Amino acid sequence: MKLIIANPATGQHKVVEIDDDNKLRVFFDKRMASEVEGDAIGDDFKGTVLRITGGNDKQGFPMKQGVLTNQRVRLLFKKGMSCFRERRKGCRKRKSVRGCIVGPDLAVMNLLIVKKGDADIEGLTDQMLPRRLGPKRANHIRKLFSLDKKDDVRKFVVRRDCPDKKKKSKAPKIQRLITPQLLQRKRHQKAVIRKRMEKGKEAKEEYMKRLQEYHQELKEQKATELAKKKKTQE
How far is residue 143's CA from residue 130's CA, in Å, rounded to a whole number? Predict the structure, then answer.
């Protein structure tokens, strides 16, 4: 089985071929997204924690998350589902996919380094490859560089060199970035809502007060009318 191991922190990946089933037995009956210790693969991976992200069987059918079997199944796919690309609008298609449980019938398995071990692994953790594109969302940047909420995310944005243009480098606009302006805008919106609620409460109190006065006026009017009728009858 081929193991394609990726390290998102450095941008490197490595292909490891293992024919011994005893070494692969650690991965068997594990589901996608489950974490496995890499000690069984070799001494280089001692202390490393790996996450199973996917794979293909020997016929090339991909693993699909949520299909709880270690065999191949035929499912009806529609737009928005993984392992399917809509060719025409509203089109649905029945196709074969492999279940998300790892078994010996897999030819390729994709792994991700979650935790680095004590020693450096050649081709995975020994050097840092420059990133052409980086994440845009603030939380994703924090996750990539292991930042705290106190750290300034704007200093860690991955910039791209543009030698031919006027600007020497480009950087994406950070999404969901919490700035003082954003907090001020939220405070203003809350204040507007609070004022509207207070105004509505006051208007309701005035209305209820006027309604009571109106009912009192009606009672007095009826009383005067009854008194007039009694006088005329006498």
Answer: 18
